[in-house]
Task: structure prediction
Amino acid sequence: MRLRSLLFVPGDRPDRMEKALASGADALILDLEDAVTPAARPEARKAIADFLTRTERTTRLFVRVNPLDGSDTDADLDAIAKARPDGIVFPKAEGAASVQALFHKMEARGLAAPILPIATETPAAIFQLGHYRAVADRLCGLTWGAEDLPAAIGAATSREADGRYTPPYEMARALMLFGAAAAGVAPIETVYPAFRDLDGLAAYAARAARDGFSGMMAIHPAQVAVINEAFTPSAEAVTHARAVVEAFAANPTAGALQLDGRMIDAPHLKQAKSLLARAGEV
Result:
């Protein structure tokens, strides 16, 4: 499943859902959690179920349900189960056990869809980031958030004045990235809140791609093209990756080879195959 860009759309705004289909996002996240007040959720559930039922799936349609620690999750799943969402975004996830709990609720309703946990939104969640491998077959990726966690621990902000994350949240980001790699699932970068700052977004997304993230969430349609570009390997990178793969295919017993004046070995081959997968070639 190619997920470079995942665009949040409020569940109580069906007009925005229609417009978001033209954004170019690989997936829409129809939101029943933070973007919708509790009073508006019953109508939002109906709007999302209707949209899922009647929309041709040229774009993957995910739904962010409410956390398991409240009373809304069951109502969310009841409303959307028969409408067959392409994925479930799981807020305030706390490791493999919480994924299993959500999966059982889904299974009881006949809802078969991969889960994308938001894996850093509570203090307890941080200590579970290495455990998602146990439920990797239920997942389509792993992502994180930098807004709920500071509120949970009483921090004033997760960012420095220049927009960089403070050390606790840099750590959470890194642990999530490694947790996704350990589970063998796609690591998805969190949102960039300054939606009018497209230059800042481009730099942020480029750093995420450099660090090993394969996609990113968005909060505004204008962000999608920038994100897609950042997470689409360049033609030069694809050409080089093909050459690495071809070199090892031609020398299957070699542990290390020379290519373009540089030594390459098993980690380079793994990186090349990963890049080609992101480019949609394998």
Observations:
- The chain has a mean pLDDT of 93.
- The longest helix spans residues 167-183.
- The radius of gyration is 20 Å.
